[in-house]
């Protein structure tokens, strides 16, 4: 009998977003799961204590229009944060895009998640075609002058941070894969843990005590656990009181205990 090879897994046989064309020839495809979940975690844990929540705007995969002279030019960061602007439009409606010359405030930090189709542009390793808009690196560094630019490669669990110093980005040295931003009173680092039931290295924010900022779901679980522990302590206290009364020959009325 002929020996047949074991069937290949879907991951080995099915095309990915990087193999398939997009309706828009300038786009590399739609975000994969990681590009959906990682920005959610960044947004969930981005809570600068020195800014009210309604003056913090974060977005992922949103068109960022950056040049009033070329109003159709845009970049679409994997995640970015702006400080000192309303979370919603003045009419309390959700934003459809972020237009820098209308908002008059540039992003404070941009995070790009490396992928095969965008890695060179994210790292500023592509030469600009003068007939086309500038690349991400040039836009963030030279036009928007974003103070902090973070890059995360989930395949290598590699986190790199660039800080605007003068006219250029300079890569900073990380301590334990973490970087503290004094102006935000927050730090950004690599956390190994489970988010949305996926255990892997993630990029997330931490506080001044080096504790990872909790997501709303984690806060709810922590609150429930604290309430459970409190109820257990009350139960044990009652049991000790009953035992003490019985040791004195008194049978307690359990309805009053």
Automatic annotation (TrEMBL):
This is Uma2 family endonuclease. The keyword 4Fe-4S does not apply. InterPro entries: Uma2. It comes from the Bacteria. It comes from Anabaena sphaerica FACHB-251. The lineage of its organism: Bacteria, Bacillati, Cyanobacteriota, Cyanophyceae, Nostocales. Residues 31-190 form the Putative restriction endonuclease domain. GO terms for molecular function: endonuclease activity. Residues 1-29, 218-237 are annotated as: Disordered. The keyword Ribonucleoprotein does not apply. Pfam families: Uma2. Keywords: Endonuclease, Hydrolase, Nuclease.
């Amino acid at each position: 009998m002929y020996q047949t090879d074991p069937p290949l897994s879907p991951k080995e046989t099915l095309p990915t977003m990087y193999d398939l064309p997009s309706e828009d020839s300038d786009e590399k495809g739609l975000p994969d799961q990681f590009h959906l979940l990682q920005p959610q975690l960044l947004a969930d844990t981005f809570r600068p204590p020195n800014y009210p929540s309604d003056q913090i705007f974060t977005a992922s995969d949103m068109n960022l229009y950056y040049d009033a002279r070329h109003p159709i030019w845009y970049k679409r960061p994997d995640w970015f944060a702006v400080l000192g602007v309303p979370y919603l439009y003045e009419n309390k409606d959700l934003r459809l895009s972020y237009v820098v010359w209308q908002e008059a405030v540039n992003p404070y930090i941009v995070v790009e998640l490396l992928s095969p189709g965008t890695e060179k542009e994210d790292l500023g390793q592509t030469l600009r075609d003068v007939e086309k808009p500038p690349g991400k690196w040039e836009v963030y560094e030279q036009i928007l002058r974003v103070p902090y630019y973070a890059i995360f490669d989930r395949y290598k669990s590699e986190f790199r941070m660039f800080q605007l110093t003068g006219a250029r980005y300079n890569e900073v040295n990380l301590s334990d894969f973490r970087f503290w931003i004094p102006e935000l009173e927050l730090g950004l680092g690599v956390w190994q843990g489970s988010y949305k039931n996926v255990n892997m290295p993630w990029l997330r924010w931490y506080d001044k005590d080096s504790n990872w900022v909790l997501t709303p779901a984690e806060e709810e679980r922590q609150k429930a656990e604290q309430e459970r522990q409190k109820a257990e302590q009350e139960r044990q206290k009652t049991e000790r009181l009953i035992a003490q009364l019985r040791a004195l020959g008194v049978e307690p009325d359990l309805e009053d205990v």
